[in-house]
Amino acid sequence: MNYLIWDFDPVLASFKHIRIHWYGAMFALALLSNYILMHWIYWRELGKTEDVDHLLWYSIAGIVMGARLGHVFFYNPGYYFAEPLKIFAIWEGGLASHGGVIGVLIALYIYQRKASFNYLWILDRAAMASALSGGLIRIGNFLNSEIAGTASNVPWAVIFKRLDNTPRHPVQLYEAFSYIGIFLFLLYLYKKSETFDFNGRLCAWCLILVFSARFILEFYKVKLVNYETHLWVSTGQMLSIPFILIGLSLLYYAKKQS
């Protein structure tokens, strides 16, 4: 079969000793899209946008610190405890999405303490931005030939030449399309509301759908041998279960408040 052969250069641009990778560019695009979306939401509901800049910086700090520490503690603690300085070597790779979510949740809590709205208000709005970001970042993973899918002979399988000559599931795109679809669903719920009183419902649906998709799609990913357990579920799947349960609990709470 004539599979798509992917041999894309992960480096977008080089300036002397500085390299800008496509993943980094997509990460920056995700942050920009979040900024624009939250700018629109603040103007639509609050009539002001001054605090969006502060929200962006809190979010960046939460994502980067949480994702890095999540990778350190969830996936390879032995290595980083033996080489603690490597914890700061983010340029070498190693960001965990589950840790990024925890980091953002903490950062948003700190941010909203000085705001005029409550914690659930900002979580519901940030949920839409988070789903969109996840989709864009996974496209960056595809461009960089990262997160290898399992071998497959489906017609849409992709050969990532930077990995090997094996046709694989383009699992990065599966995740990207799933998250963007979840973003559109959340945006639909948001726009059709007349009161904007969600009480955590958007955040609940985001957690349930995003981490359910993550749990299912983990079956189509190559396991990271150095990081995985001998259980039938991967580390990523085990970490997804608590978020799904939190989402279900939050959805129950939101329905009781409505």
Model description:
This protein has 258 residues and is mainly alpha-helical. It has a domain at 4-8 and 25-53 and 117-257. The protein is built from eight helices and five strands; from the N terminus they run βββαααααββααα. It has helices at residues 22-45, 52-75, 77-82, 97-112, 119-143, 171-192, 201-217, 235-257; strands spanning 4-6, 11-15, 18-21, 158-160, 167-168. The strands form two sheets. The chain has a three-stranded mixed sheet with strand order 1-4-5, with no helix packed on it. Helix 1 (22-45) packs antiparallel against helix 5 (119-143).
Notable traits:
61% helix, 3-stranded mixed sheet, 258 residues, two-stranded antiparallel ribbon, mainly alpha, 8 helices, 5 strands
Structural class: mainly alpha
Using only C-alpha atoms, the radius of gyration works out to 19 Å
- What series of H and E elements makes up the topology? EEEHHHHHEEHHH
Termini separation: 54 Å
Number of helices: 8
